Amino acid sequence: MDRVSGGAVALAVVVGLVGTTTGCGGRGAAAEDRKGADAATVVRGAADVVLRAGSAGDVRTGMEMAAGGTRVTIRGEGVYDFRGSRGQLKVMLPTGPAGTQEHRPIVEVFVPGALFMKNRGAGVPAEKWVRVDVAGLGDGNLVTGGATDPLAAVELLRGARDVAYVGEEAGGVRHYRGTADLDVASRAASPQVRGALGAAAKGFSRKGVPFDVYLDAVGRVRKVRHQFSFVNAGKAVGVASTVTFDAFGGPVRIVTPPAKDIYTGKIRRQ
Q1: Cβ atoms of 142 and 213 closer than 8 Å
Q2: Which of 178, 188, 248, 262 has its CA 20 to 30 A from that of 209?
Q3: Helix, strand, or coil here: 91?
Q4: What's the confidence (pLDDT) of residue 143?
Q5: Dihedral of CA 198/5/259/252: which sign?
Q6: Kind of pairing between the strands at 221-232 and 208-215
Q7: What is the DSSP string of 230-264?
Q8: Radius of gyration of the chain from its Cα atoms, rounded to whole angstroms
Q9: Residue 42: enclosing H or E segment and its boundaries?
Q10: pLDDT score recorded for residue 17
Q11: CA triplet 221, 225, 230: central angle to 5 degrees?
C-alpha cells in the first residue's frame, strides 16, 4: 500500500478515516477510438474542453469507501465555475445505524488553493467555516473533504497514460479507461490546481491513479471515476471517487465565505 502524509485530518472529521493512496495500471496500451484519434491524446485534452465550457450547473460527486467489511458512501451536489476555478457542493454524510441522517450536510466551497467547509466537525460553532490550505494536504484534496474537487478530477486526466477506448455508450458518450500519472498531471495542470496536484504527487508514493472517463460528442467530461486505496490503522481502505457534470455553460453562483465567518479556533477530532 502507498502512503500519503498529512491531508487526512479533515477526512477524519468527515468520515473517521485517515489514509494513504495507491494506483494500479489501466487496461491496455493506447488505442484508437472510433474516430481514429489516439485515445490518450483525446483524454488528456478533455480538461481543456471542460474549461472552455465555462461552467457546469449540475455537478454530482460520490465517494465510496470500504474497510474491514464496512462500506460508506458520501454524496454531494452543486455547481462549478471553471473560468473562476471555483465551485460549491453540499455533501451528505452517511446515515446512522438506524438509517437516519445524524449529521448536517457539509457545505464545501472550492477556490484556487483552498477549501472552505461549513458544518465541518466537532468544536466549530454553527454557521462558521473552516479554511483548509489544499497545498498543505498530503493528497491535494483529492479525497480529504469527502468529495474530490471537480476541477482537480478533470485536471488529473492531463496525466493520462495506458489509455484504452472501451466503447460507445448511450447518447454517443465514449468510455475510456487508463491511469493518471500524478507527476505528469501536476506539471501539466492549470495554475489554479497545480499546487494541489503537486502536493498529491509528492504525498503519494505510487503515482498511478486508475480511472474511467466518459466523454460526450464534443469531448466534455460527463463522468470520471478514480480509484484510490488507503491504509488506515493497518487496514486496507478502498476509495472510489466519481464526479459527473451536466448543464454546461450556464450562469452559476458561488459565494466565498467572508473573513469574519472563518473559524480559527481549535477543532476537536471526532
Answers
A1: no
A2: 248
A3: strand
A4: 85
A5: positive
A6: antiparallel
A7: EEETTEEEEEEEEEEEEEETS-----PPPGGGB--
A8: 18
A9: helix 39-44
A10: 39
A11: 150
Rounded distance between C-alpha atoms, residue 81 and residue 57, angstroms? 8
**Strand, helix or coil for residue 134:** helix
- Parse the chain into domains and list their residue ranges: 9-246
Place of cell 479533515: 10
Buried/exposed 29-66: b ≥16 CB within 10 Å, e otherwise? ebbebeeeeebbebbbbbbebbbebbbbbebbbbbebe
Could you read off the pLDDT tens digit of each residue along the chain, which spans 270 residues? 444 433 343 454 444 433 333 333 333 333 445 444 699 999 999 999 999 999 999 999 999 987 667 788 999 999 999 999 999 999 998 866 555 556 789 999 999 999 999 987 667 888 899 999 998 888 888 888 899 999 999 999 999 999 999 999 999 999 999 999 999 999 999 999 999 999 988 877 678 999 999 999 999 999 999 997 665 567 777 789 999 999 999 999 999 999 999 998 766 554
Q: Which fold has domain 9-246?
A: outer membrane lipoprotein receptor (LolB), chain A (2.50.20)
Distance CA 196, CA 126 (A): 28
User: What are the angstrom distances between the C-alpha of 38 and each of 41, 123, 158?
Assistant: 5, 51, 14
Dig out the grid coordinates for 18 from the structure. Answer: 485517515
In Å, what is the CA distance from 108 to each residue of 63, 163, 184?
A: 15, 32, 27
The full length of the chain comes to 270
Residue 72 C-alpha cell reads as 460508506
Residue-level pLDDT at 96: 60
